[in-house]
């Protein structure tokens, strides 16, 4: 196995940089992957193969953030057209469009899919009730610059957000107040809550920081050889992956921080990386307009990686047409 090289599956179809992505949980139909792109057209794919399922048509500006609910029945997107939209992931139909006063950078579903959180350049975190879409949203104020990411956590009793004001903040939904705050020396580029809810993964400058999700105490922090735009912790917490400005996708040991391997496949900076819910692969999105899927264990028979030995699979095994219809 040692002589096997990593052959990512390349998912084309976007026409501009891919800036964010999200996986659903494992469903009876497998799991799914959604990508945010500056072309304004989020795409839904089968998560283990990258096969294109459909494109959500309706935004009039770059899409900055995307989310899938757990069972992949709903998708959400936040965009430069000042809206956060919720979509039926089966039909592609737009279900809700929530108007904001500035660019919506981040969207996230609650566990029960009844609520949508948004973070925008208005410096406000909002929660919309999808069962009462006309109702006034809950609002959380305190950030002093545009918000990059917002995520439900602690069983949806709280939200965690990070912003251009170089802070990470935790919001208590019952009081509507900020209850914890952490300052960083540089802008936090990415934020992830681990699948079991116990660890926050934050990237800033060339660092990846892991925080205890209750106390916000630093569990560990490692430096990466480049400005790191995104990092993701494996579901079993043995390894993490990171990507940034030097076009490489890195894999590190979570305990020691030692680099295990790195791969160059993209032709532009890597903007986002994320492990699949089963941990068998990780996806990366880049300035080059592509998504790539990488095997966690190189050579394992999984998804479209059917060869363990012998010829490598075609790097463009998965492509979708440049112009694709709505779902």
From TrEMBL:
Xref: Pfam families: WD40
Gene Ontology molecular function: RNA binding; translation initiation factor activity
Assigned keywords, A-Z: Initiation factor, mRNA processing, mRNA splicing, Protein biosynthesis, Repeat, WD repeat
Originating gene: AUGUSTUS-3.0.2_06736
Membrane-spanning segments: none
WD repeats: 56-97, 97-138, 140-181, 263-295
Family: Belongs to the WD repeat STRAP family.
Name of the protein: Serine-threonine kinase receptor-associated protein
Natural source organism: Tribolium castaneum (Red flour beetle)
Signal peptide range in chain numbering: none
Alphabetical list of InterPro entries matching this protein: WD40/YVTN_repeat-like_dom_sf, WD40_PAC1, WD40_repeat_dom_sf, WD40_rpt
UniProt record, GO biological process: spliceosomal snRNP assembly
Lineage: Eukaryota, Metazoa, Ecdysozoa, Arthropoda, Hexapoda
Cellular component, GO, one term: SMN complex
Superkingdom, natural source: Eukaryota
SUPFAM superfamilies recorded: WD40 repeat-like
PANTHER family: EUKARYOTIC TRANSLATION INITIATION FACTOR 3 SUBUNIT I (PTHR19877), SERINE-THREONINE KINASE RECEPTOR-ASSOCIATED PROTEIN (PTHR19877:SF13)
Keyword Protein biosynthesis part of the UniProt annotation: yes
């Amino acid at each position: 196995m040692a002589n096997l090289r990593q052959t990512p599956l390349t998912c084309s179809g976007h026409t501009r940089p891919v800036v964010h992505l999200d996986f659903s949980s494992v469903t009876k139909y497998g799991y799914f992957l959604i990508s945010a792109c500056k072309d304004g057209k989020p795409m839904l794919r089968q998560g283990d193969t990258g096969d294109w399922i459909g494109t959500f048509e309706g935004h009039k500006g770059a899409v900055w953030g995307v989310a899938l609910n757990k069972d992949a029945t709903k998708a959400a997107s936040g965009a430069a057209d000042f809206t956060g939209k919720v979509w039926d992931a089966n039909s592609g139909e737009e279900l809700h469009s929530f108007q904001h006063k500035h660019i919506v950078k981040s969207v996230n579903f609650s566990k029960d899919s009844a609520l949508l959180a948004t973070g925008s350049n208005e410096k406000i975190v909002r929660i919309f009730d999808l069962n009462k879409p006309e109702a006034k949203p809950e609002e959380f104020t305190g950030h002093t610059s545009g918000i990059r990411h917002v995520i439900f956590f602690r069983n949806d009793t709280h939200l965690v957000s990070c912003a251009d004001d170089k802070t990470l903040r935790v919001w208590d939904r019952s009081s509507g107040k900020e209850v914890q705050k952490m300052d960083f020396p540089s802008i936090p580029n990415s934020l992830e809550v681990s699948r079991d809810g116990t660890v926050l993964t934050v990237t800033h400058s060339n660092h990846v920081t892991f925080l205890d999700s209750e106390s916000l105490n630093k569990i560990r922090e490692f430096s990466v050889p480049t400005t790191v735009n995104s990092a993701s912790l494996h579901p079993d917490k043995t390894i993490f992956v990171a990507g940034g400005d030097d076009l490489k996708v890195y894999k590190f040991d979570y305990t020691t921080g030692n680099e295990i391997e790195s791969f160059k496949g993209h032709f532009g900076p890597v903007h986002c990386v994320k492990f699949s819910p089963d941990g068998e692969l990780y996806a990366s999105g880049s300035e080059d307009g592509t998504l790539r899927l990488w095997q966690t264990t190189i050579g394992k028979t999984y998804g479209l990686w059917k060869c363990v030995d012998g010829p490598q699979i075609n790097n463009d095994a998965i492509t979708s047409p440049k112009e694709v219809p709505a779902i």
